[in-house]
Amino acid sequence: MKAANAANAANSVNAVPPTDLIDEVDVGGLKVATIRAALELDVFTHIANGHDTVAAIAAASACDEAGMARLVNALLSLQALEREDGRLRNSPAAAAYMVRGAEGDAIDINLAWLRNRDHLVSTIRDGRVRAEPLTSAHWVSYARPELVRWSSRVGELSAAFADRGVCVSSGSAVLDVGCGSGLVGYSLILDVPGARVTGIDAAPVLDVARALAQRMQIEDRVRLVPGDHRSLDEHVEHSSIDVALLVNVAHYLTEGELLDALRSIRTTMRPGGTLVVSSLVDDAGTPGYQPNWTGAIEMLLAAPGIALRSGEQVMERITSAGFDRVTQHRPWSFTAHVP
């Protein structure tokens, strides 16, 4: 026994700490820098427009040809670009999401997030937010990828609803506040004939939601209303909603706005109705809960007056708005019911 303990102690002393994390940061950081450079320089858009050689891309983007050659080689290695007979073309992913005007064009929102991260150190030092203001154009950019990938996401969303005991029946009415592309609410009603959804968001974003409803062939069961939680009294009948969704919205609301939103939603719901809230939460660094720490850093950079809440604080806000049986489904979603 003493010999075994001594061997264990020796192994512990001699163990070499892994460098996996710092190696990942090194290579992963270069991947981010490479893709960001390509987005900033509109490389993928230039290629889509027929500039399919290094010299042509360099000329279109007013760049040094040798530097562009190095960037193109990196993009080829990352499989963001492909080359055939000396001509460059975008990979399917780049063509879908990284070309301006493409169906899933997500350039604006991703560049906004990447630029905000340049300010992380200064924001930590002085607490002052220097974020690029997010406009409706950014949220359109955030929603558009679902037009391309919706069919691969429906099963995932449906499984998440089932896991949380959220379901609708024929004739059920769903409300999705801050609906974005609409995919979350659409996934809930897709296979339920007669179920319908009302989505509320900024008018430009609703153009994406409308296109997605048509693509999913449920446009006759979808009603889209421009506005936000302050528009509910005007557009949604009291006590008419069976399931209400507030997904990826709460962490952008101040304390007063969140409570107002939850109370407004509550008035639209029938007794026994189900509320679903998904919100980034601030925790104490729970290992493995990646959405929590990444969300905490992102929100630190996001906007003045917006702060993350702990899971317990989110549950307390939901309870204060008149819901009961509030449950947290870790790491960052919640369900509750109207008494």
Task: Describe the protein.
- By secondary structure, this protein is of the alpha/beta class.
- The protein has two domains: 2-102, Winged helix-like DNA-binding domain superfamily/Winged helix DNA-binding domain (Arc Repressor Mutant, subunit A); 140-337, Vaccinia Virus protein VP39 (Rossmann fold, 3-Layer(aba) Sandwich), CATH 3.40.50.
- Helices cover 50% and strands 15% of the residues.
- It has helices at residues 2-14, 20-40, 43-48, 54-60, 65-77, 92-97, 107-117, 120-126, 136-143, 146-163, 183-189, 203-215, 232-235, 255-268, 290-300, 311-320, and strands at residues 81-84, 87-90, 173-177, 196-201, 222-226, 241-247, 269-278, 324-329, 333-337.
- A seven-stranded mixed sheet has the order 5-4-3-6-7-9-8, with helices on both faces. A two-stranded antiparallel sheet has the order 1-2.
- Helix 14 links the parallel strand 6 (241-247) and strand 7 (269-278).
- The protein is globular.
- 33% of the residues are buried.
Write the layout of secondary structure elements.
Elements: H1 2-14, H2 20-40, H3 43-48, H4 54-60, H5 65-77, E1 81-84, E2 87-90, H6 92-97, H7 107-117, H8 120-126, H9 136-143, H10 146-163, E3 173-177, H11 183-189, E4 196-201, H12 203-215, E5 222-226, H13 232-235, E6 241-247, H14 255-268, E7 269-278, H15 290-300, H16 311-320, E8 324-329, E9 333-337
Parallel strand pairs: 3-4, 3-6, 4-5, 6-7
Antiparallel strand pairs: 1-2, 7-9, 8-9
Helix pairs in contact: 4-5, 7-9, 9-12, 10-11
